Amino acid sequence: MKKQIMLACLLFITIVGTSLAQMDHSSHMNMKKHSDMDMIEKYNVDAKFQEQLKNVVDANQKLGVAFLNDNKAQIKSNITEFSSQLSKVDMSLLEGDAHHAWMSYSKELNSETKQIIESNDIANQRVHLAKLNEALYKSLKAFGTGGAEVYYNHCPMANGDGANWLTTSKGIQNPYMGQAMPTCGSNKEILN
Questions:
Q1: How far, in Å, CA of 144 to CA of 140, rounded?
Q2: Quick one: which of 174, 97, 170, 92 has its CA closest to 133?
Q3: Of the candidates 139, 146, 144, which has an alpha carbon nearest to the alpha carbon of residue 103?
Q4: Based on the structure, what is the number of domains in the chain?
Q5: How many DSSP H helices and E strands does the chain contain?
Q6: What are the residues whose beta carbons fall under 8 Å from the beta carbon of 63, sequence distance 6 or more?
Q7: At residue 121, what are phi and psi to the nearest 5 degrees?
Q8: How far apart are CA 93 and CA 145, in angstroms?
Q9: What order do you get walking across the sheet with 163-167 strand by strand?
Q10: Which residues pair with residue 164 across a beta bridge?
Q11: Does residue 111 belong to any structural domain of this protein?
């Protein structure tokens, strides 16, 4: 009987210990995800640069609406406008580390823009839209919004494992779920 109690206790300790180790590991993973965004260096930049970045955000807003409406022709038109606004951002307004940071963010933004332009599959475009929004989010965290209020929203169902998007509208208008679930999601952060 003592052996059975001891065996049961050891089994219980093993199960609880394993569960705690897994919980502890997952909390570190969540902390890492949050700390990556917290580690974005913030730069004081020229107001002209912020205004140009705001124009990119406005173009992104229009792109998001096209995805919300599942409008492939409008997506093509609006991603072209996004690309145009992105090309107008004058990185000569930045110096040193800020200049290097923008080079990195703009490279990612341009890469995802190109992927959306070259694709005709809206599901594939939405995968790249999520990456584009993350790069734009990092840019806004680093350089500011120029006083504009930008909402950073999350859809847990988008692209299989969730995705975020930026919008200048307060209400949820999900570009990933389109007309199937246009209000799915929640606000994670307000940037200004």
A1: 5
A2: 174
A3: 139
A4: 1
A5: 5, 3
A6: 75, 78, 79, 81, 82, 129, 175
A7: -100, 115
A8: 16
A9: 163-167, 150-155, 186-191
A10: 154
A11: yes
Range of the domain at 65: 47-191
Q: Is residue 175 part of a domain?
A: yes
189 membership: H or E segment, kind and range = strand 186-191
| Burial bucket for residue 27 (CB in 10 Å: 0-12, 13-18, 19+) | exposed
Closest CA to 65 of 75, 52, 76: 75
In a domain, 59, yes or no: yes
Q: Would 10 be classed as within a structural domain?
A: no
């606004």: which residue's tokens? Answer: 85
The DSSP annotation for 41-87 comes to PP----HHHHHHHHHHHHHHHHHHHHHHTT-HHHHHHHHHHHHHHHH
Residue 1 has a pLDDT of 55
The residues, ordered by sequence, that sit 6+ positions from 2 with a Cβ below 8 Å of its Cβ are none
Cα distances (angstroms) measured from residue 110 to each of 55, 82, 96, 115? 15, 10, 21, 9
Q: pTM of the full predicted structure?
A: 0.80
The domain spanning residue 56 has which CATH number? Answer: 1.20.120
Reported as a single tens digit per residue, the pLDDT across 33-76 is 444 555 899 999 999 999 999 999 999 999 999 999 999 999 99
